[in-house]
Amino acid sequence: MDENGFWAMIEAAWGVAGSKAQPRQRLSEGKLSEGRAYALQEVLEEEVVPALLERLDALSADELLGFDRILERKLYDIDRADIQERTDGSDDGFLYCRGFIVGMGRAYYEAVRANPDRAITDAECEQMCYLSWHLYHDKFGDMTPSGISRETCSNPAGWPPDAEPGAAPDTAG
């Protein structure tokens, strides 16, 4: 599993949503209201995640591990104070917000990564954060730790040294 395969799996899962998935592009462009974004959250949780789980279930142990490692890295890379400030939420809440960002697909992920103002306050998808990890555990047993964490405040490059989840970053000069 490589990064393109990872994003292709998410896009294929969005295929079940049909026209309900079309507003994702507007979300990536910052042209979708928060209310419409929350409607996408429901589609993600109720339709896309189950479709993704079905696709992941067909993968070999190595492919599923690869998917999970990429998911973990994507969640880690956007574990940043500037994104947390926009999305709000506690440490778990911010993790779930990052799950929403990844679950919306590559265009939205890259948009938020480049411009945190594109993130939606309190839009969450808890299931996305550990979907592949739980499936791997159920099918193949324990997963060897990767050395990074998807948990909030685990990416030192994204947080001031004294940062605590949920606290506003220190922007004083």
Write the layout of secondary structure elements.
Blueprint: H1 3-14, H2 23-28, H3 34-57, H4 61-77, H5 81-87, H6 91-103, H7 106-114, H8 126-140
Helix pairs in contact: 1-3, 3-8, 4-8, 6-8
Protein architecture, described:
Helix 1 crosses helix 3 and helix 3 (34-57) runs parallel beside helix 8 (126-140). It is built from eight helices and no strands. The protein is 60% helix and 0% strand. The longest helix is centred in the first third of the chain and has 24 residues, at 34-57. By secondary structure, the chain is mainly alpha-helical. The radius of gyration is 16 Å and the shape is globular.
How is this structure best summarized?
With 173 residues, the chain is mainly alpha-helical. The chain has eight helices and no strands.
What helical percentage do the residues reach?
55-70%
Please tally the helical runs, counting DSSP H or I stretches of 4 or more residues: 8
Assign the structural class, choosing from mainly alpha, mainly beta, alpha/beta, alpha+beta, or little secondary structure: mainly alpha
Tell how many strands the DSSP assignment holds: 0
| Strand/helix succession | HHHHHHHH
Shape, per Cα inertia axes: globular
Largest sheet data? none
Supply Rg: 16 Å
What is the strand content?
Answer: under 5%
| Low-pLDDT residue intervals, each spanning 5 or more residues | 166-173
Q: How widely separated are the two ends?
A: 43 Å
Compute the average pLDDT.
Answer: 91
